[in-house]
Design brief:
The chain is α/β, with parallel strands linked by helices. It is about 40% helix and about 15% strand. Strands 1-4-3-2-7-8-9 form a 7-stranded mixed β-sheet, sandwiched between helices. It is globular and about 45 Å long.
């Protein structure tokens, strides 16, 4: 967990990141960047990981298992060096015109002006998320709990992946820092897997969801934020 200028008297605005706030899958974009632009991880290792991930998706493996498997590629990698490469990767992808979903970004800035604590909740790693959090003035990053030893990642997670029920798990634990703000807080996601996260706070929003997610939402009734809709 990464914290910055937290005000525990204020409610929170929780944001899923990939496909909610930004238009790319940060984990896979970053892996492609490392594979193509750096020599941080041996080519054979990244190639094998790409194949294994494709096989897991094809086999419809649980997303929690895919997420945990992904972080094995960073075993032995320097935490500081990965953070620096995360900043270089971010400068490259953030320059693209369609990087942000503007309606979700408008909501983030609205809540920021209203005094909410802004919180990212993502299955991505801190190296990918911290540059974005710093650029937007986000207060907290709840993300993949990558184990570190002696300044290097071990390739393991120390707790459950931050996806599906895992996101709700980390939000509930995070809210223990506050006093009675859950009902006044909001959360934004885009996928069925974000339903547990949206249900942990007073108001949950789906950002331009797929037809499958819309259908599933008929029983949940989270508010849908359409891409054409201006921030209220």
């Amino acid at each position: 967990m990464w914290l910055h200028n937290l005000d525990t008297s204020k409610p929170c605005a929780f944001f899923d990141v990939d496909n909610t706030l930004i238009s790319i899958k940060s984990m896979f974009s970053f892996l492609n960047y490392l594979q193509e632009k750096t020599k941080l991880i041996p080519q054979q290792v990244t190639d094998e990981m790409q194949v294994e991930l494709k096989q897991m998706f094809a086999a419809k493996e649980r997303r929690e298992n895919i997420n945990a498997h992904y972080y094995r590629v960073f075993a032995g990698v320097s935490v500081a060096e990965l953070a620096e490469l995360g900043r270089k990767w971010y400068r490259q992808v953030a320059d693209k015109a369609d990087f942000f979903h503007p309606h979700a970004l408008a909501k983030l800035k609205q809540h920021q002006q209203e005094g909410y604590n802004l919180v990212f909740v993502s299955g991505s790693g801190l190296a990918m998320l911290q540059p974005l959090a710093e650029a937007l003035g986000v207060n907290t990053v709840l993300c993949a709990p990558q184990e570190q030893k002696e300044g290097r990642y071990t390739g393991k997670l120390v707790d459950q992946p931050c996806i599906g029920e895992g996101k709700a798990h980390y939000i509930r634990r995070y809210l223990r820092l506050f006093t009675d703000v859950a009902a006044r807080s909001v959360a934004y996601g885009d996928d069925i897997s974000d339903f547990p996260m949206l249900a942990t706070v007073g108001r949950g929003y789906l950002v331009s969801p797929s037809e499958l997610t819309r259908a599933a939402n008929q029983q949940q009734e989270f508010t849908i934020l359409e891409i054409e809709q201006e921030a209220a």
